[in-house]
Amino acid sequence: MVERTGSTNSDLLADIGAIEGDWLVALAQDAGKGRQGREWQSLEGNFFGSTLIRLRSSDPPAPSLALAAGLALIEAVDTAAEGRDLALKWPNDLMSRDAKLAGILLERSGERVVAGFGVNLAMAPQIEGRATADLGGAVAPKAFAPLLAASFARMLDAWRSAEPDAFARAWLARAHPLGTPLKVHLNGDAYVSGTFAGIEPDGALRLDVGGEIQLIRAGDVHLR
Length: 224
What we know:
It is a single chain. By secondary structure, the chain is α+β, with helices and mostly antiparallel strands. 24% of the residues lie in helices and 31% in strands. A hairpin with a 2-residue loop joins strand 9 and strand 10 (212-216).
């Protein structure tokens, strides 16, 4: 754990000496980032950490690593703060009721992938148009780090050994209900609305649009 860095994802991905299972956790970030290049507000007392995965030829499709990361995160938060109403939201958010509690960012360089986690342990950032939540300081970053590391190690092993459809079902069991209305921002001004119809084994979103299933592999999801 370091006191301060720019981005745990960027630093770990650039570290050519890092091996699978290594973690970089910072108490503060100056250049935290979210999906699609957005800034991640790194507020004091929250968790910012990344871990490295080295892909193997026998691994499931790399995009489905997001499922393992999500399951590891929700398991760790369950352990740290019991009794929370938590749900995973595709592709990379952890929700507390309808408010965002945490986010995940996966970045890849060759066969190396970093999974970065930002968790609102103490403070919820103000984001225009989005509800946010925090754990009210129920756990400190230094205590949360080993919980998440242990959960991720277990989920990474399960991701590699379980049948892909079974692993997708495990993620689905912790997600918002089937039939939830969704609005998906694809790119630019392009949106598509429908209802949640599950996920594919490779992690793609199944969106029911007027009775037709569309597979979404990249986009931002809003609960309508």
